[in-house]
Design brief:
The complex is a heterotrimer of chains A (330), B (298) and C (322).
Chain A lengths: L5 E12 L2 E13 L4 E5 L6 H9 L7 E9 L2 E2 L5 H10 L1 E4 L3 H4 L6 H12 L4 H14 L5 H4 L9 H13 L5 E5 L7 H18 L2 E6 L2 H5 L4 E6 L2 E7 H6 L4 H9 L39 H5 L5 E2 L6 E2 L13
Parallel strand pairs in A: 3-8, 3-9, 6-7, 7-8
Antiparallel strand pairs in A: 1-2, 1-4, 4-5, 9-10, 10-12, 11-12
Helix pairs in contact in A: 4-5, 4-7, 5-7
Chain B lengths: L31 H19 L35 H37 L1 H16 L2 H11 L5 H28 L2 H8 L4 H37 L11 H8 L7 H28 L8
Helix pairs in contact in B: 1-2, 1-9, 2-3, 2-5, 2-7, 3-5, 4-5, 5-7, 6-7, 7-8, 7-9, 8-9
Chain C lengths: L7 E11 L4 E12 L4 E5 L6 H8 L7 E6 L2 E2 L5 H7 L3 E4 L13 H12 L6 H11 L4 H4 L9 H13 L5 E5 L7 H18 L2 E6 L2 H7 L2 E6 L2 E7 H6 L4 H9 L39 H5 L5 E4 L2 E3 L11
Parallel strand pairs in C: 3-8, 3-9, 6-7, 7-8
Antiparallel strand pairs in C: 1-2, 1-4, 4-5, 9-10, 10-12, 11-12
Classes of the chains: A alpha/beta (330), B mainly alpha (298), C alpha/beta (322).
């Protein structure tokens, strides 16, 4: 247990809202080792972003209660003080967010934002921080980093800005990088560049990466393990290959089949999931996916399924009526 | 267990599990203070309207024997230096304040809003010209202009005071309404309405107006409060309705010289005036929150 | 492919913004034909001009030059009054479903708006609205009187579709209409669109940046880059054997939800040039591995490389002979 880079146990983040308690993250347990890439997949409302923020320690406790445990490289994040969290951020974990324009302060030069962590968290001098900052900008593939160091975010394109955000995240050489929808909103060709860049950096710096996204295409070829989330819980997890090809949970299948594919002929009928993601304030007992599931039985509606193992190693799913046949070849 | 095709969707699927639409919409609560403020404003307006029919002492009746008297059973608010009953003068005086403020805002809105809404929809040269004109009027200090005009346009009456103040509220209304309309006019549903063949008038009325009404209502109320205060200030300077007609402002003006002997003349009209302004502001603010429609969650 | 006249004929469409000093060339002269009953997809990355094209065709923004003919009638120079009438044959569905509906109006009224504008005394107005809402999968009895703000993104898009159908337009332009929706909702809307297209005999111009989505709904696809059409052809053929190098890179970058799909190492490098200073000749030449001097000197004109398949490139990658 203590050997893992990241250990999450029974993590729960519950928001206090006017309508009642909203369990955005509902009993999540998983681990991550060094040099692994994990994908967390879910639609809006699945809780994946709240999970990322909670793991990072960014989730405020003013209107949310967090219980459970998040241990990164031996340090506990849940309940840690601001100073303790800063120590963890300085050396172990870093995060990049979806919209590069709002992650960067538009009135501060790009270089300063990159070496801010170096100066504040690691106490480097201005000159040393600047040197390292320029190095980092080069590392993420920004041409002429000495000049670009003095640029403002508005002068850079979306792809460039995301690279700057990555550079800032890597400044303290974290062992774990959380990437929340890092390529959503970017052009397809730029997406490919950024994802390749993340792969390269992962190798070079020996990091583990958690890729959080709604896009199955992003995780298909770049992760070794996947977690599928629905309504705040893990409904399936395992190695990427197994989850894509031998999944058991109908939601996973529906998710895979509802996305149109470039390889399918035009006018292919898409498989849809009826209804909409559930209202977390009014969850009934039983499986959260039951109202939309084609295989739901009374047991599904009354009793919530726990995660159980399948015949594949490391593969777990939560379903009373799992799919037993594998997905047809494309 | 069974085959592995999730059901093919040919039937309408919104019947399944639509949760958020089941509950009626919850709006921000208005609160007790809101209703108290409404009550106060309503009371003032009501009394102003029916003043003639109330069993009040004649506000102009002079009674030098009991001048500067404090509150008593006969004179609830006491008397002023001419022995006139303060309570009835406050009530009759409210007519001036209310008439001038609502009248001025009416002038401002009836001219300012349609121009602003039209400018926000049409844009182009019409908008540029009109807006430049209005903004340059705003740059000119309206209060000084009001004071100057009212100084020499005598004899003053209700109509003249209302008209002058009203004219200077037009650019203020224009600015607020135009800003609000622009925010709405740039939204896609307005473009959609244009594409569907709606004429400008229909768009202004059906698409833009309902979305700016909350802001307008709240601005009217705050504007009324402002004009009541302005009229009070003008009266204080002797530039509003001439005595002996009472108004809150000129009563406070008269009380200046006799403050040490007869504080009642200053006190009651001031309290009533302040409460009226504060209530209007409060109502305007609360209404704005109440109508602040949070757009779809999801 | 088609011998009859296209329903929508766009020739030499140019859209430029800005002052003389700083001129942005958003659309740099494109030709489009849209035939009745087909779905033409326009795909490209941000800044390619696809949305601008859609808006210029609808005359939501004014084109700098070019002709736009619908059933033979040129609408590009029409005055406001005549345009109003002409617009009933074209409708548009927008990217953000929530801001495309007036939050303070009931959806029954929103859908009936075109009828109220053109045929206010229509006897069966209410029945038409009921029929439309049912057709898009929203129960009119339960939800008809609700305000637009009470609906989710997917539902709002359905209402927008119902509204677009109210006057039975000849052409519907879909501008990134599913980009803001979750994958599972997107699938519902795309299936719905296909069903309605069949039922109402619609002709669609589908603009999007997602390659898979565009292929799924389109018969033919046009690929745009920096204001120009690089390639246009039948969907299956274009995706199977792309002829323009940009199309190939675009397809290579598409992320397939399949762990076995080959990871493409030839990633398109660099950034798109600024539309204020587009490269001379072929606009893609600054990032194209096959570019030569000819590409800088001559603007490539569309040439046929297959049936109904044209490419604007001096060195097309594939030529399918038929």
């Amino acid at each position: 247990m203590t050997d893992h880079l990241l250990t999450v146990e029974h993590l729960r983040t519950t928001f206090k809202t006017a309508g009642g308690d909203l369990p955005a993250v509902n009993d999540i347990t998983f681990t991550l080792d060094n040099n692994e890439t994990l994908g967390i997949v879910g639609e809006s409302g699945s809780g994946k972003t709240v999970l990322a923020r909670t793991i990072m320690g960014l989730q405020g406790t003013r209107n949310a209660t967090i219980t459970g445990s998040v241990v990164i490289n031996g340090a506990q994040v849940v309940g840690a003080t601001e100073d303790e969290k800063r120590k963890i951020w300085a050396s172990d974990v870093s995060m990049i967010f979806q919209d590069p324009m709002t992650s960067l302060n538009p009135v501060i030069r790009v270089g300063k934002q990159v070496d801010e962590t170096l100066r504040v968290l690691q106490g480097l001098s201005k000159e040393d921080a600047m040197k390292r900052g320029i190095e980092l900008l080069g590392l993420v593939g920004i041409p002429s980093p000495e000049e670009r160091y003095r640029a403002f975010p508005g002068e850079l394109s979306g792809g460039m800005r995301q690279r700057v955000v990555i550079a800032a995240a890597l400044a303290c050489s974290p062992k774990l990088l959380l990437a929340d929808e890092p390529t959503t909103g970017l052009d397809v060709t730029i997406q490919a560049q950024i994802l390749n860049l993340l792969d390269e950096l992962k190798e070079k710096m020996g990091m583990s990466v958690i890729l959080i996204t709604h896009d199955l295409g992003v995780v298909a070829t770049r992760t070794s393990r996947i977690i599928v989330m629905y309504a705040g819980r893990i409904v399936e997890m395992g190695s990427t290959d197994v989850v894509f090809k031998h999944h058991r949970m109908p939601y996973t299948r529906a998710l895979l089949e509802s996305a149109p594919k470039v390889s399918n002929p035009s006018h292919t009928r898409l498989t849809t999931i009826p209804g909409r993601p559930p209202n977390l304030l009014a969850l009934d007992s039983g499986c959260a996916f039951a109202p939309r599931c084609a295989y739901a039985t009374d047991k599904c509606r009354n009793e919530r399924p726990e995660l159980q193992a399948s015949e594949y190693e490391g593969h777990m799913f939560a379903c009373w009526n799992p799919i037993t046949t594998d997905r047809g070849a494309n | 267990m069974e085959n592995d095709t999730v059901n093919d969707q040919t039937t309408p699927i919104e019947h399944v599990g639509s949760t958020t639409l089941e509950k009626p919409e919850k709006k921000a609560p208005l609160g007790v203070l809101f209703w108290v403020s409404v009550g106060w404003v309503g009371l003032n307006i009501f009394l102003a309207i029916v003043a003639n029919f109330l069993p009040l002492i004649d506000p102009l009746a002079l009674n030098p024997n009991i001048s500067n008297a404090g509150p008593s059973l006969h004179h609830f608010f006491g008397t002023d230096e001419f022995g006139r009953d303060i309570l009835s003068r406050v009530i009759f005086g409210s007519r001036i304040s209310i008439a001038v403020s609502f009248g001025a805002l009416f002038i401002g809105f009836s001219i300012g809003s349609p121009l602003a809404m039209l400018a926000s929809l049409r844009r182009g040269r019409f908008d540029k010209a009109l807006t430049t004109f209005m903004y340059s009027l705003l740059a000119f200090p309206g209060i000084i202009a009001t004071i100057s005009i009212l100084s020499f346009w005598i004899p003053r009456n209700l109509f003249k005071v209302t008209l002058v103040i009203g004219l200077f509220t037009i650019p203020l209304v224009y600015r607020v309404v135009r800003t609000a309309s622009l925010a709405v006019a740039s939204k896609e549903f307005v473009i959609a309405a244009q594409i569907q063949g709606a004429k400008d008038g229909r768009i202004l009325f059906k698409e833009i107006l309902p979305n700016i009404t909350p802001i307008m209502v709240s601005f009217v109320l705050i504007g009324v409060a402002g004009v009541v205060a302005l009229e009070g200030a003008l009266a204080f300077l002797g530039l509003s309705i001439n005595p002996p007609t009472p108004s809150w402002g000129n009563m406070i003006n008269e009380s200046r010289t006799i403050l040490s002997t007869d504080p009642w003349l200053a006190l009651f009209p001031s309290i009533v005036l302040v409460l009226f302004i504060v209530s209007l502001n409060f109502i305007g603010d609360r209404l704005r929150n109440y109508f602040d429609v949070a757009e779809v969650k999801i | 492919m088609e011998n009859k006249e296209p329903l929508l004929k766009v020739r030499n469409l140019v859209v430029e913004f800005g002052t003389k000093a700083r001129r942005v060339s958003a659309v740099a002269g494109i030709d489009l034909d849209l035939y009745e009953g087909e779905t033409l997809g326009i795909v490209g990355e941000s800044g390619c001009g696809k949305s601008t094209t859609g808006k210029a065709i609808m005359r939501i923004l004014e084109a700098t030059s070019g002709t736009i003919e619908i059933s033979g009638v040129d609408i590009s120079q029409m005055d406001k009054k005549t345009l109003r009438k002409a617009r009933t044959s074209m409708q548009m569905i927008f990217q953000d479903p929530v801001s495309s509906l007036n939050p303070r109006r009931r959806i029954k009224d929103i859908v009936a708006e075109p009828i109220d504008c053109w045929d206010p005394k229509r006897a069966d107005r209410d029945e038409v609205v009921i029929k439309l809402l049912n057709a898009v999968g929203i129960d009119p009895d339960v939800y008809g009187n609700r305000y637009a703000r009470q609906f989710s993104g997917g539902q709002c898009q359905r209402i927008a579709i119902a509204r677009a159908l109210a006057m039975h337009p000849k052409i519907i332009i879909c501008d990134e209409m599913v980009s803001a929706l979750d994958v599972s909702i997107q699938a519902q809307i795309l299936n719905l669109l296909e069903d309605l297209k069949a039922e109402y005999g619609l002709t669609l111009l589908f603009i999007a940046h997602d390659l898979a989505v565009v292929k799924n709904v389109s018969d033919r696809v046009a690929v745009m880059y920096l204001g120009k059409i690089c390639e246009i052809g039948p969907a299956d053929q274009l995706y199977e054997s792309p002829s323009h190098p940009y199309t190939k890179f675009l397809l290579g970058a598409a992320l397939e939800a399949d762990p076995d799909s080959a990871k493409h190492d030839e990633v398109l490098t660099g950034e798109p040039p600024s539309p204020m200073h587009p490269p001379s000749g072929c606009r893609f030449r600054t990032r194209c591995p096959n570019a030569t001097q000819k590409c800088a000197d001559e603007v490539p004109l569309p040439q046929a490389v297959g049936v109904g398949h044209e490419v604007a490139c001096h060195y097309p990658l594939t030529i399918t002979r038929k």
